[in-house]
Amino acid sequence: MPPARWSAGKPEWDGPLTAPTGYLAQPPRAPPSSGVLHIPTLPTPPIDTIPSDINIPDNYVAHTLSTTKPLPPITWNNWWKELNYISTTILTVTPAIAIYGLFTTKLHWQTALFSVFWYFVTALGITAGYHRLWAHRAYNASPALEYALAAAGAGAAQGSIRWWSRGHRAHHRYTDTDLDPYNAHKGLLWSHIGWMLVKPRRKPGVADVSDLSRNKVVMWQHKWYLYLFIIMAFLVPSVVPGLGWGDYRGGFFYAGAMRLTFVHHSTFCVNSLAHYLGATPFDDKHTPRDHFFTALVTVGEGYHNFHHQFPMDYRNAIKWYQYDPTKWFITVCYFFGLASHLKAFPEGEIKKGQLTMELKKLERKSQSVVWPKSSNDLPVITWESFQEQSLTRPLILISGFIHDVSSFLDEHPGGRHLLAKMIGKDASTAFFGGVYDHSNAAHNLLAMMRVGVLQHGLELESERAIPPSQRLQIVRAVQIADLVRAAEHDERPGPADGRLED
């Protein structure tokens, strides 16, 4: 691999780039009669079809963050220089037009229904098209569906497929870092809209879109994006109500400007609200969360914790009753032959993620509970010492552990006499069914009365000596290693300490 020179965080390579997958070398030709071997050369692909991350170093993130500086902070003295005027204009003028129309134009019921319909059409252009089809390649679409989604997405006024997908792939690759263009750790307002109003403080991390550069529908939309935006965002929603029921003005203000405002903030909630509101049933390493309300306002994109764990899955909601109209739309397209190769992550892997989080929750709960002492934390007592101390304390031996039952003598359901007669004796047989086969609660309570271990009476803790509450205890790998080492080196205290703990 040729050496790299770093300039502003972007590698510049001294040697030729490796040809990407899909560009095959020409077949070898027979050597000419002169005897000089002809060495074929690789065809030179267009520069935008070469993967941008083909030669990035393994430590790209750390290197970039340490060697490149972000733009200076925005202050009252420089804020007007740092504005992204194109985005700021669209995101402020559009709602202003909608508000003006709200106070000056009557809303007809036909226009209201069409506005809702057009909202879903353009929103699905983003969720089913930009997001799940092109950014994540979660399924394949027929040419007709691709063109339809490309046009509908242009009506949402969020940039071209190629531009949008590049930023979104960077968001997934560098989630919650400074290379994430809408890093949730910078605040709800920033991740929702702030990152678009000002110039990015730092260039988003490298993300490859060479596959999209080879897609003729994507490049068609990229080339004609401005015209498609005008047609789909304002012309169609004005003309349809105008020709249909004579409401050109209402179509422009409601199906055009107001609908576009709602689509904008619906999509923006995926970057903001979906990283703040809800639960983390699949992973808690990053900020994405699952919540029904977020799904409701984002056309099904609110099960975001699942999505960030399994981004290539065509679903966001995996349960049939969860709200995900984008999944339903893709499924209907599949039924009619417009979509194919729907990707769904293996069910077993999904369950592993869920189980891991459930175990984490159980572990946190277990940390708030007081557990009995193990054999390693108790003094070792000889049989003679046990007998001697039982004369002054109600001590009972069960499963190799010595228990002080003084606090339970008068509480024993079978009566004080059943415990009193076992003082200074081994009551294991009686406890485990000889007299009464005690309940799980009794096992757990008994373990809390441990005060010592009988010498030579407990080489290893038996199954019976482990309280039921601990038999399925959550144990980390490092704890297992500690237990193995303890067993190998027998780290319990040595021979008799003499007296038991009070």
UniProtKB/TrEMBL annotation:
Domain of life: Eukaryota
Subcellular location: Membrane
PROSITE patterns: CYTOCHROME_B5_1, CYTOCHROME_B5_2, FATTY_ACID_DESATUR_1
Any Gene Ontology biological process: unsaturated fatty acid biosynthetic process
Primary subcellular site in the record, as a coarse category: membrane
Cofactor comment: Expected to bind 2 Fe(2+) ions per subunit.
Enzyme Commission number(s) from the entry: 1.14.19.1
Region of interest (Disordered), residue spans: 1-32
Family assignment from sequence similarity: Belongs to the fatty acid desaturase type 1 family.
Annotated PANTHER family: ACYL-COA DESATURASE, DESATURASE 1, ISOFORM A-RELATED
This protein's name: Acyl-CoA desaturase
Species assigned in the record: Calocera cornea HHB12733
